[in-house]
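Encode chain A's predicted structure.
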Amino acid sequence: MQIHPSAIVSLKAKIDSSVIVGPYSIIGDNVNIGANTLIGSHCVIEGNTTIGSGCQIFTGAVVGSKPQDLKFKGEDVFLEIGDNNVIREYCTLNPGTGQAGKTVIGGNNLLMAYSHVAHDCRVGSGCVLANNCTLAGHVTIEDKVVIGGIVAIHQFVRVGMLSITGGCSKVVQDIPPFSTCDGHPARVYGLNLIGLRRKGIPRESIKQIDRAFKLIFNSGLSAKHATEKVEKELTLTEEVGYLVNFIKNSERGLTRSCR
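Encoded structure for chain A:
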């Protein structure tokens, strides 16, 4: 283990011998850090925080500090971060609220500078959160999501897999999977074709998703009637079925079309 002499690291923390800790960083009692993780300078890692292997945490990040929630009364809460995440300068990541509340971040994510992940969020794997991206409490970000800079996402919103949201957007309702969204408030502009192709989704399945999008967002039908029409008229590939179930289970309501 390489710990800079100016760093303050609790003897109770569980840190793999391959971890590097930079100058003036502080690591608390209940922190668990996996192999080959790099902690930069002036970082604070505290609380019941678990960090996987191969992560990089850059200057000034604050990870595991108390949630910014007036309901928090000092309960035992947790933050779990998976493997191979890059957490850039001055990001803030909070644990859950309520007894045993938990914030979970998957693996292979890039959180750019000043991003904020609030209490009880769920972030999947392979996501990019650009600079100053802000997640309110209880937000769910599914896998392979791209969120632009200075985007604010309302509490309890769910952002569907393989979607991309443009910078400076205001997200107050669920972002459908496979979509490209933008605006204030955010609106659906179409399919994230580049993301679908990179994922290796078959061409025929992409055609079915496109047809589903046209029915759901451009037909003038309500979400309920549009999904019923999709189920009756289209081939329910894995992706189309996922889209339909996402819409049916939306609690915040669905982001609508720009048209």
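The radius of gyration is 20 Å.
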